[in-house]
Amino acid sequence: MSVHPRLSINQATIKHTTVAEALRVTADAGIGAIGLWREQVQDAGLAESARMLADWGLRYSTHCRGGWFTAVEGPDRRAAIDDNRRAIEETATLAAAGAPGSRAVLVLVVGGLPDGSRDLPGARQRVRDAVAELAPDAQAAGVTLALEPLHPMYASDRSVLSTLDQALDIAADFDPAVVGVTVDTFHLWWDPDVLAKIERAGREGRIATYQVCDWKTPLEADNLLSRHYPGDGMIDFGPMTRAVEAAGYTGDIEVELLNQAIWDTPPAEAVRRTIDGFARAVAPHLG
Amino acid sequence: MSVHPRLSINQATIKHTTVAEALRVTADAGIGAIGLWREQVQDAGLAESARMLADWGLRYSTHCRGGWFTAVEGPDRRAAIDDNRRAIEETATLAAAGAPGSRAVLVLVVGGLPDGSRDLPGARQRVRDAVAELAPDAQAAGVTLALEPLHPMYASDRSVLSTLDQALDIAADFDPAVVGVTVDTFHLWWDPDVLAKIERAGREGRIATYQVCDWKTPLEADNLLSRHYPGDGMIDFGPMTRAVEAAGYTGDIEVELLNQAIWDTPPAEAVRRTIDGFARAVAPHLG
C-alpha cells in the first residue's frame, strides 16, 4: 500500500513512544509528516525534539494540545493560560524545525464544565475570553490556534465546544492566521449540517487542520478510546473529505487514534495499518 | 417532598415492573401520570393494561416506543412499519383509557445505520419516508408521532436523528397534531442552539412531550444506561424547562431513567427519588 503524501501521524496513535521513536517509525514508514504531543516533547526536551524533527526531515502538522481553559478566574485559570503560552512557543519552535510545508498549528481542546458547575454558557464565554487573551501571543509567534469542537458526548468533561459553528463563531473575532478550527471526522460526522459548516469554515479561511478517524459502535467502555483506523467503522469519509478539499485545505491530514488495542500494537504495525486505512478510506477522495 | 402535578413516571425508570406494578407504585406515590413501554403492555395484554390504567385513574403521558425504521425496503422494513401501526393502535387505546388530560403520543426512536451501512443521509431519508407512510394511520387513530432526536453518541446504533431541527424539518410536512417531537434534556442539553430550537418547536406547535433526565460524566460503560435523576448530574434544567414552558407546552413531564443502579433500586424507592429530583431540579422552573 503506498503512502499518501499528505498523511501525517499524530503521536496519539502511537501513544507509547518517545519523540525519538515516533519520528523514527513515521519516517521509516515513508510518511512525510507528524504531529507530536506536548508531554512527550517535554520529556525529550523542546530543543532536542526540534533537532530530531529537523534531522528526520519530517513536516510538522500540528502540536497537541493546548486548551483546558474553562476555569473561572483564579490561580487555576492563570496556570492554564500560562501553560498555553508555553504551548504556543513549543508549536512555533517545532514548526520552524520541520521540513518545508510544516504548519505552526496548536490544537485546542477547550475543556469541560468546571467541577460542580452546570453553567455551560459561562464556560463557553470563558473559552472565548481565553482565546482573546492568547491571540496576541499566537500572532507574535506566528502560530494558529485551532479550536477543536469535540463530539457532544464530551461536552461536560472535555469540550464545551461541540460544533464547528461554535468554534467558527469564536474564531470570527480574530485573524484567520491566528485563530482557526480543527475538523475531525470522529467528532463531527453525525452533524446533519457538517458539510455546510465545513464550507463555511473554508469560506472564512479557518480550516487549520483536518484529522481523520473512524467511529464504531458499540463504543468502548471508556468512550475516549473509541477511535478507529479509517475504514474500520461507520464513517463515510467521502463527503467530509471532499468538502474539506473544496474548502481549500491543502495541508497534511492527521490520523489521531485513541484506542487501547491500537496502543497495544507495536508502533510500526499501527503506522502500517494507518497507512492502509488512509489509502483505502480517505485517499480516494483527495484530488 | 410534594409531588408535582405534572410529573409522570416513564416505565423505563422502573424497568423491572409489570404494568400492574408500575401503575400501583406510581399511583401509590401520589403521581398522576405514567408512560408505559410496549413490551410490558404486550406481556400484560393491551385490553387488560388499558383496564388497569383506567382503574387507577392515571393520565397516560406517552407510549414508548415506536420507530426503528431505517432499514432499506424489504421484509425487515415492512415488519417495522407494521409494528409501528400496532404501536399506534396501542397508543390510542391506552390514551383513551387514561384519566382526562391523557395524551395519545407515540415516542419514536428512529434507529441507527443498518448493519454494514455508512449512508447516514439515506437512513435519514428513510425515516422521513416511514413517517409519511405512518402519518395517515396516526391521524386516523388520533395519535401524535413524537420524533425523538437522540444524543449524537447514538447516531450510528439508535438514532440517525440527533438534533431537534432534524426532527422539526421532518415534522414540517405534516399536521402538528400528527407529527411532533420529543424534547429530552439528556439528549439535547449540549446543543448550543437548543433554546432557539425549542422556541421553534413551540412556534411550530410540535412539542408532543417533554422528558427530563440528567447527564453525568464519566458515562457508564454502557452509555445507554447513563441517565440520572434530575439534579444528580451536570444539566441546568432551568433554561430548557423555561423554554419549553414559554413554547406553550402544558402537558405532563416524564422522567425516563435508563440506569442499572436505578433498576436495582426497589421501584417504590426509585419513584420516591424521582419525585425528589423533580421537585428540586425541575419544578422550580415551572410556572
TrEMBL record, chains A, B:
GO molecular function terms attached to this record: isomerase activity
InterPro entries for the chain: IolE/XylAMocC-like, Xyl_isomerase-like_sf, Xyl_isomerase-like_TIM-brl
Keywords: Carbohydrate metabolism, Isomerase
One Pfam family in the UniProt entry: AP_endonuc_2
Domain (Xylose isomerase-like TIM barrel) ranges: 24-276
Name used for this protein in its record: Sugar phosphate isomerase/epimerase
Protein's organism: Microbacterium paludicola
